[in-house]
Amino acid sequence: MKCPYCNYEDTKVVDSRPVEDGLATRRRRECEKCHKRFTTFEKIENSLLVVVKKDGSREPFDKNKIINGVMRACQKTKVTFEDVQRIAENIERGLNNTMEKEIKSSIIGGLIMDELKNLDKVAYVRFASVYREFQSVDTFIEEISKLK
């Protein structure tokens, strides 16, 4: 691994520990030349999962899109960033376990809504309003009444 500071070719691993429930490894490295330290992460690369969007277009699955969407829905709630990461990791793991190569975006949205419904009702309604494209106040009222 090249040193990000001086581009020297040789670095040594100083510390190594599992992260993300053992699905990745965090390594502290030290450059043999400049002796600066930096962190790297090693993670198993999952097979490429393709998301089929509503309009029929396809794009590679991106866990960060789930994190960003859930974070917007969870603004000003008590939901932590760790909760959001856990949701995204649960969904990614579940999708990879299906062994499907293509997954509809509607399925991913439904999985996110299931997770949010159990975590925070306000975040759930916020996400549902964007995901289901609520057009009127009546739609909000219907969704909220389902939660009661």
Give the topology.
Blueprint: E1 11-19, E2 24-31, E3 37-43, E4 50-52, E5 58-60, H1 63-73, H2 81-97, E6 102-104, H3 105-119, H4 121-131, H5 137-147
Parallel strand pairs: 4-6
Antiparallel strand pairs: 1-2, 2-3, 4-5
Helix pairs in contact: 1-2, 1-4, 2-3, 3-4, 4-5
Descriptive report:
The chain has 148 residues and is an alpha+beta fold. It folds into two domains: 11-43; 50-147. The chain is 44% helix and 22% strand. The protein is built from five helices and six strands. The protein has helices at 63-73, 81-97, 105-119, 121-131, 137-147, and strands at 11-19, 24-31, 37-43, 50-52, 58-60, 102-104. The strands form two sheets. A three-stranded antiparallel β-sheet has the order 1-2-3, with no helix packed on it. Strands 5-4-6 form a three-stranded mixed β-sheet. Strand 1 and strand 2 (24-31) form a beta hairpin. 13% of the residues are buried.
Q: Helicity range of the residues?
A: 40-55%
Order of helices and strands: EEEEEHHEHHH
Regions with little confidence, pLDDT below 50 for 5+ residues: none
Structural class: alpha+beta
Rg from Cα: 20 Å
Strand segment tally? 6
Overall spatial form: elongated
| Distance from first to last alpha carbon | 54 Å
Q: How many structural units, i.e. domains?
A: 2
What's the pLDDT, averaged over the residues?
Answer: 88
Query: How are the strands ordered across the major sheet?
Result: 1-2-3
Outline:
The protein has 148 residues and is of the alpha+beta class. The chain contains five helices and six strands.
Features:
148 residues, alpha+beta, 2 domains, 3-stranded antiparallel sheet, 22% strand
